[in-house]
Design a protein that fits this description.
This protein has a two-stranded antiparallel sheet with strand order 1-2. The longest helix is centred in the first third of the chain and has 24 residues. It has a domain of about 160 residues. About 60% of the residues lie in helices and about 5% in strands.
């Protein structure tokens, strides 16, 4: 069995890479989608499966969100011309959801952009062809493990990690293998992380948004080194206004997961997670760690170690040559 520290470290690398690529994908072709936490995995679904025509109930099962939240998220995306409703050929009383040409264009632009990034990664000598082939294989297995593959995530209610873990008729494993590993990384991290945070956060009655999620994760990572940032630090980190940052933090304070504290000189106010916020984030971290332990234990130990090293090399690439591919 892969040890927990190794699994946790691998998850963090995947999460960081996914976040950078996810942000980049929305800047491609000049289109910036300001999507809610519920809308994001729906857009990600159609990035991965652009020709799928699921019903709302299919998306509900796939994402693991309440049906009302998914319906509301879909309606917002339809109003923004990202998705369109079409009648079902089997039952004219029901409708299906399809990506618009606009969303497909953004998705195709993202894939072309990431392919250029991959070519630069290869050309820069960061990894050998054999290493890249191994990484591609493991990315495919990760994606398949979330879409009905051999890795079992949910065993008991206490292990609830991905509500609605099922295999869907509109998910073609062969299509997964044809996707760039970057798309699969975003796909995997999003569909595993989203429902998990919603499940744990929802036990408090709060509403998790994408903004809250990003701040929660960042504050958790800073807490491990004893750092407590100011609002301006968070605003600069995520390239959003101080006003929006304060508004999001105020909501998290009401939820009981964040608090403001005075600095030692009492001249500045800093932000940190409350004990409840730390507990919440540690719970979810344990879920991710358990999943990665289960998954990485299903591959050869040397392959798991090689995969982790390849992620390290890609992080180095992002900080060097890869910077020109990352859009603000």
């Amino acid at each position: 069995m892969i040890n927990a520290d190794f699994a946790r470290d691998t998850w963090r690398k995947l999460f960081f890479i996914s976040g950078r690529l996810r942000t980049t994908s929305y800047g491609i072709l000049g289109k910036d989608y300001e999507c809610s936490f519920a809308q994001f995995p729906i857009i990600q679904f159609f990035f991965t499966y652009p020709n799928a025509t699921p019903a709302v109930k299919d998306l509900t099962s796939y994402i693991g969100f309440p049906s009302g939240a998914v319906s509301q998220a879909v309606e917002g995306l339809v109003r923004n011309s990202v998705l369109v409703r079409i009648p079902s050929e089997k039952d004219r009383r029901s409708t299906l959801i399809r990506a618009t040409d606009e969303l497909r264009a953004v998705r195709d632009g993202a894939i072309n952009h990431f392919q250029k990034m991959l070519d630069a990664f290869k050309a820069g000598g960061y990894a050998t062809p054999e290493e890249i082939a191994l990484a591609d294989e493991i990315f495919v297995r990760l994606a398949e493990s979330r879409t009905g593959g051999e890795i079992s995530v949910v065993k008991t209610p206490a292990d609830l990690a991905v509500p609605g873990l099922v295999k869907h008729s509109f998910i073609d494993p062969e299509q997964l293998k044809a996707l760039p590993p970057w798309i699969m990384t975003m796909h995997f991290v999003t569909v595993l992380k989203g429902p998990t945070l919603v499940y744990y956060y929802g036990t408090r009655g709060g509403r998790m948004t994408l903004g809250k999620l990003r701040l929660l994760d960042h504050l958790f990572l800073l807490s491990e080194s004893g750092e407590s940032p100011m609002v301006k630090d968070l605003a600069a980190r995520f390239r959003i206004s101080a006003g929006v940052t304060s508004q999001t933090l105020n909501a998290m304070i009401q939820d009981g997961v964040v608090e403001r504290i005075s600095s030692p000189d009492r001249r500045t106010i800093r932000i940190r997670l409350t004990q409840e916020g730390l507990r919440l984030r540690r719970q979810t971290s344990a879920v991710y760690t358990r999943f990665m332990q289960n998954f990485l234990s299903s591959v050869e130990t040397d392959q798991a170690e090689s995969f982790s090293r390849i992620l390290d090399k890609f992080l180095v690439f992002l900080e060097n040559d890869g910077k020109r591919f990352l859009l603000s």
